[in-house]
Amino acid sequence: MVGCSRKSLQQGIVALLQFMVFVLGVYADCSAWEGKVLSIIDGDSLIVSHDGKKEQVDFYGIDCPEKEQDFGQVARNYTMQRLQGQLVDIEPSGKTRYDPAAALVSLEGNLFNLELVRVGLAWIRTQKCTRPECEEWREIQKQAKRKRSGVWSTFNPIPPWEFKRSKDAQKIIYSGDIVTHVFHSTNCEEFDCWNCIAVFRGREAAIKAGYTPCELCKP
After folding, report:
1. For the chain, where are the alpha helices, taking DSSP H only?
2. Which of 14, 27, 83, 213 is deepest in the core (most CB within 10 A)?
3. Contact (Cβ atoms closer than 8 angstroms) between residue 141 and residue 117
4. Alpha-carbon torsion 210, 213, 214, 217, what sign?
5. Residue 65 gets which letter from DSSP?
6. Would you say 48 and 37 are in contact if contact means Cβ atoms under 8 Å apart?
7. What are the pLDDT digits (tens) for 201-219?
8. Cβ–Cβ < 8 Å for 175, 159
9. Residues 58 and 71 sit within 8 Å (Cβ to Cβ)
10. CA proximity to 102, closest of 36, 57, 50
């Protein structure tokens, strides 16, 4: 009897898990939608028509250079050439500070968020890109850095979010690993490591804070 009860319990748990997977799958399908790209705001923001309305969509997990930055206009033109007038699949993934939908955007089954990272026209927002696939995105970004694609062809490019907030946007930005106390240039593969949350505007600031230069990128 005990064996039968245990077997029944296991079967019940399996059935419950299968039901939960089904429900989550249905929910995911329902939350995703298709729309036509009407216009391009910048490299990572679109205006898309959906159910007779216009909606602004931000690309989840990434940030393209601002229009005033190197490759900012290049990123916008790239997105325009690829997506303008196209039907795209939108999978909402939360809200941004400006409150449009932050989403995964796919064209004919290809994830455009990742395409921008691959060609070096977008930065991954490490602390905001939390989906399981973000780990793969980081590897793709490292490859783009090695190839010096797009923004990575310039010396110590300034992250867009730092460019927007910094009054002294011309100063070189470094990240610091708060565990190892090593600092990295923006071109470095380790710039956006999980512990690299200290930000220094200028090399002197990093040295003054007790951080040592990375042996890989030699900032």
Report:
1. 2-31, 72-83, 112-118, 134-147, 160-165, 203-208
2. 83
3. yes
4. positive
5. P
6. yes
7. 888 889 988 999 999 888 8
8. no
9. no
10. 57
